[in-house]
Amino acid sequence: MTMASNPLHGLWTLTDRELKKWYKAPVVLIVTLIQPIVWLAFFGKSMNMASIFTNGSVNIPGLNIPKQIIDQIAQAYLKSTFGTTDYFSFLAASMVAQITFFTAMNSGMSIVWDRRLGVLDKLLTTPVPRGSIIMGKVLNSVLRSLAQATIVLIIATLLGMKFNTSLTPLGFALSIVGVYAALTLLALGFSALYLTLALRSTNWQSQMAIINLLNMPLMFASNSFYPIKMMPWWLRPIAYINPLTYVNDVTRGLLLGISTFSVPMDFLYLAVFAIAFSAIGIVLSWRFLSEG
Amino acid sequence: MLGDSAIKAINLTKRYGPILAVDHINFEVKYGEVFGFLGPNGAGKTTTIKMLTTVTRPTEGTALVGGYDIVKQPAKVRESIGVVPQDFTSDEDLTGWENLMMIAGLYGIPKREAKERATELLDLVELSHAADRKVETYSGGMRRRLEIAMGLINRPRILFLDEPTLGLDAQTRAAIWSYVFRLKEQLGTTIFVTTHYLEEADQYCDRIAIIDHGKILAIGTPRDLKKVVGGDVVILQVAGNPETAVKVLQNIDGLSDVRIVEGFIRFKVSDGSRAAPLIFDVLSKAGVRVTSIAIKEPSMDEVFMEYTGHSLRDEWGSREEAMAMRRIVRTARR
Ligand SMILES: Nc1ncnc2c1ncn2[C@@H]1O[C@H](COP(=O)(O)OP(=O)(O)OP(=O)(O)O)[C@@H](O)[C@H]1O
Ligand SMILES: [Mg+2]
To answer: Which of A17, A20, A125 sits opposite B55 (nearest CB)?
Structure first.
């Protein structure tokens, strides 16, 4: 037999296994897509910030402020807060990172199931590199995230997301590639993180608890829903180390033309995040994937 | 890298907290041998296999498998072995075919070759008709047969089977053993197998190790082990009252363990066929007429009882039930 010298050996086989489960069960795909779409519909559409501020004129007796002026004040306020007057697009841009994050989170569960259902025991007896067992799942999560992000982008566009008008078609294509690159790094880092946390777990309840514990803070302590400058001071440090913030900055920077940091800095941060956690995941899987 | 033995355990030990699951065991398995591990629940059979197949690290000691150290060269060990674990390990969301192809991929077997082998193996375990069905729709017996096919896909030099026939009907059990036997005969595969079917151990294993509470109590060929029990078992039927005959027999030197079992007289003697004429003689002098006689080698159950002080058979019922339960629970958890 010839393999085992190749460190990537078996990686695609394992990724393919995970992908099969996914495209053969479209229900899973649909369910995963529901959440960001619900967010978009509720927060982006019904609670559209612009309409909260611009809904009709204000009538204070004796002082009649015309609607235009109110609108102007509101627009200026929105612009200064979100960098755009279009809150829906602002939010929609963050949804692609959101769905990537959710997908990555759940990848940790799959290793718990593999352990419980005995599949892992089998994998461990084969010559496949231990790191590939983890990286197969990471890769699956990356591919899945990109597919789902694409669907979210398409739906958001249909619902009225507006892109930076100054983009040429080529510029737009490159921007999309840039966004995918950022999402790939995010998915790599987070799936590796969650898989590493699940390396020894046989208990999906405790894994769910970990997911829920990290889920909310990471989601809200980021620039997903509103800019960091609107946050209370104690929440800001979390938002600044949260990789979601940087992906959102890339997406908004490239697609909407509003960036708080700078896109190259965002990428640098994300690359460090992805490489660090993938490396930790691979190293720890050699040590901890087997029992005791 | 062919050493002298296919498997050599050296003080192999596994401790789970306070439990010594495997307690400093030593044994050797020769190339081409079918080596049986026989022991009651919790004896440490599965733990031993898990260590030998590099799924679990030993707490102490080590073993050479195919000449490679399981602790220092686990990757080398993995390349030369095939494993059929006790618990189901196939992916329920995939079909039988996909499972086989996946495992083939992990062994780096080229696609075309993998397809050939998968087709052949599915045919062997009689699952060709269900190849494209999801494993979750398989019955317990079908799943076990698939596990066996998965363990054979890399044509291993050394094959580990942890209770491969558990829960299968007699016909399938026989089919699987005959295939295992063919592997040994035609390819010279070394086979390390645990089983709780005493007859299987007796019939198919070249040598057997009896393990209980993590310790090996005896190793030998089924024949040798049976000799230790003390010769043959003789079963007599007499005309008239068997009690009288028992009294007479108890006074003959060399006969032991004389009992009445379901109306038959049963005793042990070192060489049944030599003792028979003498026994006829003594009994007829005492006025007892023998109507039938059967001389048998001791069964593995007796060997087992001799070493462990308890019968393996007592556990059968509860054990099969436990296995069935385990399977149901696993499926239900999904
Ligand atoms: N992961 C584990 N953690 C703690 N204890 C364990 C673990 N695995 C096995 N044991 C204990 O080690 C002992 C030996 O178990 P093992 O599974 O090797 O027995 P076995 O001979 O295969 O039994 P069976 O015939 O029931 O399969 C048992 O007491 C068991 O409870
Ligand atoms: Mg066992």
So the answer is: A125
Say which DSSP state A58 is in: -
Collect all residues with Cβ–Cβ distance below 8 Å to A261 and sequence separation of at least 6: A246, A249
Shortest Cα distance, chain A CAs vs residue B182, angstroms: 22
Write out the residues surrounding ion ligand 2, Cβ under 5 A: B 45-46, 86
Stretch A49-76: mean pLDDT, rounded? 61
Taking the CA of residue B331 and the nearest CA in chain A, the distance in Å comes to 9
Tell how far CA A61 is from the center of its chain: 48
Helix (H, G, I), strand (E, B) or coil at A128: coil
Interval A232-277: pLDDT, tens = 888 888 889 999 999 999 999 888 888 778 888 999 999 999 999 9
Same domain? For A136 and A277 the reply is: yes
Q: Are residues A7 and A75 in the same domain?
A: no
Does residue A40 fall inside a structural domain? no
Looking at beta carbons, which residues of chain A come within 8 Å of B88? Answer: 117-118
Cα–Cα distance measured from residue B118 to residue B284, given in angstroms and rounded to the nearest whole number:
65
Distance B167 CA to ligand 1 centre (A): 19
pLDDT of amino acid B25: 95
Instruction: Please name the residue of chain A whose CA is at the shortest distance from the CA of residue B78.
Output: A127
Shared domain check, A212 and A123? yes
Q: Are residues A74 and A201 in the same domain?
A: no
B232-239/B264-269 β-pairing: antiparallel
Contact predicate B180/B168, CB 8 Å:
no
Which tokens go with A176?
A: 């999309």
Residue A27 falls inside a structural domain: yes
Domain B7-225 CATH class label: alpha beta
Q: Which residues of B278-312 are buried (b: 16+ CB within 10 A; e: fewer)?
A: ebeeebeeeebebeeeebebbbbebbbbbbbeeeb
- Beta-bridge mates of residue B64: B8, B69
Residue among B53, B4, B48, B51 nearest B29 (CA)? B4
- Are A139 and A21 found together in one domain? yes
Q: What is the CATH architecture of B231-297?
A: 2-Layer Sandwich (3.30)
ipTM of the complex: 0.78
